[in-house]
Design a protein that fits this description.
DNA-binding, mainly alpha, MarR/SlyA-like, DNA-binding transcription factor activity, HTH_MarR-typ, DNA binding
Length: 151
């Protein structure tokens, strides 16, 4: 196995294990990866966001997002609002009940980061972040090209 293949496999494995570790810690809160990552994404948005925009940010299809939002709405963590311009468009908003849940998610994420990264040298983390950003930029560039190729 060459270095690039080893890197790609390790990156995927680490990503899955990291997500699993947070999922294990959040299981007691009744939150799956899909639910907690959706809440985090919503908390990072400035203002309200449409379901279509949220689906794109999360990388999921519309029907998948609808089921996810139904579950979050049932828990009282989000609400859907109709727009005056187009009643088919729904805006998503966090409810006040979501704040303590978000605080818990962020606390657990901080604890997991500290457990995993706490004793690593800052310069190593900076170098790794540089590489990951470069890879991410290349992936975004290739995704943009393949999306536009068919249009």
């Amino acid at each position: 196995m060459d270095l690039r293949e080893s890197f790609a496999r390790e990156l995927g494995w680490v990503s899955r294990r990291w997500r699993t570790r947070i999922n294990e810690r959040l299981a007691g809160c009744g939150l799956t990866f899909a639910r907690w990552s959706t809440l985090l994404q919503l908390s990072r948005c400035e203002g309200l966001i449409t379901q279509t925009e949220l689906a794109a940010l999360l990388g999921v299809e519309g029907p998948t997002l609808v089921r996810l939002l139904d579950a979050l709405e049932k828990k009282g963590l989000i609400e859907r609002r109709l727009t005056m311009d187009d009643r088919r468009v729904k805006l998503i908003a966090l409810t006040p009940a979501a704040q303590p849940v978000l605080e818990r998610i962020n606390q657990i994420a901080r604890e997991v980061r500290e457990d995993i990264l706490g004793d690593l040298d800052t310069s190593d983390l900076e170098a790794c972040l540089t590489v990951l950003r470069h890879i991410g930029a290349r992936l975004e560039g290739s995704l943009g090209k393949s999306r536009n190729a068919g249009h």
